[in-house]
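User: Predict the structure for this protein chain, please.
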Amino acid sequence: VQLQASGGGLVQAGGSLRLSCAASGRAFSTYEMGWFRQTPGKEREFVAGIRRSVDSAYYADSVKGRFTISRDNAKNTASLQMNSLKSEDAAVYYCAAKTLVALKFGYWGQGTQVTVSS
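Assistant: Here is the predicted structure, written as structure tokens:
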């Protein structure tokens, strides 16, 4: 599967932004999807994931209640709605995919920059 993330940009603290991930390839619905983020000098960190079922999402504690991950299996897309953004949410965001049997996310899109101004 090939992934392309979009939707990043500049937003004020407290604002919202929606990231999208378009997937190409076969059987998108069989992949678990995720969003990760990375800031300079730090390791990439998990943000949110959604299993094959559209109602099975899970989140990092730091974004729980503010971010919502979703997927549309008919459109081969996954999204991350980010509300109440904080300065510490600024990062390059990556979408990722994982097969059912894989232990880790193995497919990655290019990053999209999110900048939060205070």
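The CA atoms of residues 28 and 84 lie 30 Å apart.
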